[in-house]
Specification:
Layout lengths: L2 H6 L2 E4 L7 E4 L1 H4 L2 H15 L6 E5 L3 H12 L2 E7 L7 E8 L2 E8 L8 E9 L3 H11 L5 E11 L3 H6 L4 E9 L3
Parallel strand pairs: 3-4, 3-7, 7-8, 8-9
Antiparallel strand pairs: 1-2, 4-6, 5-6
Helix pairs in contact: 3-4
């Protein structure tokens, strides 16, 4: 499996969730076992040996690979969910998305100051949701924050937003916005 083969297996969905957005749908790549394995293996290579204690997945597509990464890295898994989806006491961050406003939450006791965290999501676009996730994790005073995404949409400058807030930011695949 090559990087280009994985990119070619990603479906474009025009005008989703609103008109003018060219949505990159990774479910077509995830449905191919060889693509899924390649993504997991490549991410594990990048983060093995960094002392990660918790992998934080952002709802919803961040939940797909984050638990697998956690298992491979010998870490725990912590979900960041949309408002009112978690049962215990939470902390929240509200942020502006490309097409609206959203609030994300995490359990107040999910992380400790001793944790080294890898925050994972499927796509890095403008960086709004990832910046909000970083802010949420920082509220719990962790040691270090790494960021991983499957796809970076080049031209939307999300990496610049994220790199200024995390210890590192790494994306497996780079795709031009209009591809």
């Amino acid at each position: 499996m090559t990087e280009q083969e994985v990119i070619q297996s990603i479906r474009n969905v025009p005008d989703f969730p609103i008109a003018g957005i060219q949505f990159k749908d990774i479910t077509t790549a995830l449905a191919k076992p060889e693509c899924l394995k390649w993504m997991r293996d490549e991410m594990v290579k990048r983060y093995k040996g960094l002392g990660i204690t918790q992998v934080v997945g952002i709802e919803s597509r961040g939940f797909i690979l984050a638990p697998a990464l956690a298992i491979e890295l010998g870490a725990g898994f912590v979900p960041i969910r949309k408002h009112n989806k978690l049962p215990a006491e939470t902390i929240s961050v509200t942020y502006q998305k490309e097409y609206g406003q959203d609030t994300i939450q995490m359990h107040k006791d999910a992380l400790t100051p001793d944790d080294v965290v890898l925050i994972h999501d499927d796509i890095l676009a403008t960086g709004g949701s990832m910046a909000a996730a970083i802010e949420l994790v920082k509220k719990l005073g962790v040691k270090k924050i790494y960021v991983s995404c499957i796809i970076e949409l080049i031209g939307l400058n999300g990496r610049k937003v994220v790199e200024s807030q995390a210890d590192s930011c790494d994306c497996l695949l780079s795709i031009e916005v209009d591809e």
